[in-house]
Design brief:
The chain is α/β, with parallel strands linked by helices. Helix content is 37%, strand content 20%.
């Protein structure tokens, strides 16, 4: 039976609110996911929250009620609370009526099985968590294996990144590694490293992509470092017809991913 919590001073409420902070997420090994759609996506991917918090209204939905029951049956903590507490916990003025705290999966590079998918994203020093979440969402859409974050990037388990992923945080693998470690790992097996660069001479529509393909996207402001471009098997550019010289990092990743998949249709 869910327990009712109506005080901001409650220890579990404080614990959940702290997960908006990266340091707390790391210490707790947990992250927040909001909304029935994302929580249902997690359940369909075999993940249940360790803590689920909801309003009376949120619990009325049959699917929400089912997931709340499954969480309790699995030993998780189910808490009914007020919309005000949900708002303060999520940091949104118009909060979702249900949220969950999930354990963070292992993010070491050796946990990635490159043969499990034909396409992977690699992102270098992305600063915007929304871009990270959007790339994960694109990865789910194109059947990619996941995202490898290189160097110092935004946290893929931040509330903003999880929101932008629309549930793909539960369907895509996520790994973190410094560049040198990634290169050693990549060259230890098969894999074509394709970088996007304004300096490239190859049109992205005219390149032959091979499986598994690793799409390397650079930092939002600076792009890829020269040494990283030199390591790529192929550098490509997406021609711009207007005044803008480049696309947003997440949009570029999506354009590239769909072109790579399209190029394989007749193979």
């Amino acid at each position: 039976m869910p327990r009712e919590v109506t005080a901001f001073s409650n220890a579990t409420v404080k614990r959940l609110r702290s997960l908006r902070d990266k340091k707390a997420r790391k210490e707790e090994g947990l992250f927040l996911a909001e909304g029935l759609r994302i929580i249902a996506e997690a359940r369909d991917s075999g993940r249940l929250p360790e803590i689920i918090m909801f309003s009376a209204e949120g619990a009325r939905h049959p699917l929400a009620s089912e997931i709340i029951g499954a969480t309790e049956a699995a030993g998780g903590d189910a808490i009914e609370t007020t919309p005000d507490i949900l708002s303060k916990t999520s940091g949104k003025d118009n909060p979702q009526m249900i949220l969950g705290a999930y354990g963070q999966p292992e993010t070491i590079l050796s946990a990635i099985d490159r043969s499990s998918a034909p396409l992977w994203f690699v992102a270098q020093a992305l600063r915007d968590p929304g871009n990270i979440g959007t790339i994960l969402r694109t990865g789910d859409a194109v059947g990619a294996g996941g995202l490898i974050l290189i160097d110092d990037s935004a946290d893929p388990y931040s509330v903003e990144a999880v929101r932008a992923s629309m549930g793909a945080i539960f369907t895509q693998k996520v790994a973190k590694a410094p560049w040198s470690e990634f290169v050693t790992w990549l060259r230890g097996g098969s894999g074509q490293l394709v970088g996007t660069s304004l300096k490239a001479t190859n049109d992205y529509l005219e390149v032959e992509y091979t499986r598994p393909c690793f799409l390397l996207i650079g930092n939002e402001q600076q792009g890829l470092p020269a040494a990283y471009e030199e390591e790529c098997d192929t550098l490509v550019k997406i021609p711009m017809a207007g005044r803008a010289d480049s696309l947003n990092a997440a949009i570029a990743a999506a354009v590239m991913a769909f072109q790579v998949r399209a190029s394989w249709r007749d193979q």
